[in-house]
Amino acid sequence: MPTVLVVEDDHQLRDVVARVLREEGLTVMTAADGHAALAAATPETNAIILDIGLPDADGRDVCLALRTRGVGAPVLFLTARDAVHERLAGFAAGGDDYLTKPFHIPELLARLRVLLRRNESSPPSTRSGLVLDPAQHALTHEGASAPLSPTEFRLLAALLGHPGEVVRRRELLRAGWPDGAIVHENTLDQYVARVRRKLVQVDAPDRVETVRGVGYRVVSS
Ligand code: CA
């Protein structure tokens, strides 16, 4: 059963969310502040719902600290504020999605399900010896390492999850960006170009081929 950590200092909201998730059959842990969140999360945690406005810390800093401790679980940030720069800062901190309070429980569940599926599908390594490290958001190959942004990480995970198969542009957009994000067509190509450079940087035997008008595929030489 997937384990979800709910970090929220508003005890009423925390209790409601925990109860609903348990009713969904999930294993739920709760924490009321950043300190407790760091103590409760483990590399086995499958997803984290993380309030940004915690009494002892900014949730985004908690997320960064979790990443350095080997906790690679996808993070859904909760915030009472809806400023674009905070969304961007949240993603830069390694968050995977964002929900603004007040929210409807079905929306929380829908987003959480997407994150849990994404977590299941990210491969730890490939046949050619590439390792995607979700905790460090890094790509490694035979001792060489390159850092990946959260979007680069998710795009590469989506491509490496289907070696030799074409992954459609639409699927890559869905994998790389949060639901509802408006992404320019060229942006995907720019990100794939970055991913290609990272593969070269670690001297990977894999490369990303363009399948014109359809998508991309990873092939190994
Ligand atoms: Ca709060």
**What percent of residues adopt helix (DSSP H or I)?**
40-55%
- Write down the secondary-structure element order: EHEHEHEHEHEEEHEHHEE
Number of helical elements: 8
Task: Describe the global form.
Answer: globular
At the first level of CATH, the class of the largest domain is Alpha Beta
Bound molecules: calcium ion
* Quaternary structure: single chain
Termini, distance in Å? 38 Å
In CATH terms, what is the architecture of the largest domain? 3-Layer(aba) Sandwich
Radius of gyration: 18 Å
Poorly predicted residue ranges: none
Lateral arrangement of strands in the main beta sheet: 2-1-3-4-5
Say how many strands there are: 11
Folded structure, characterized:
The protein folds into two domains: 3-118, Rossmann fold; 130-220, Winged helix-like DNA-binding domain superfamily/Winged helix DNA-binding domain (Arc Repressor Mutant, subunit A). It has 221 residues and is an alpha/beta fold. A hairpin with a 3-residue loop joins strand 10 (206-211) and strand 11 (215-220). The chain has helices at residues 11-23, 34-40, 59-68, 84-92, 105-121, 150-160, 169-176, 185-201; strands at 3-7, 27-31, 47-51, 75-79, 97-100, 130-133, 138-141, 144-147, 167-168, 206-211, 215-220. Helices cover 42% and strands 23% of the residues. The mean pLDDT is 86. It contains eight helices and eleven strands. Bound molecules: calcium ion.
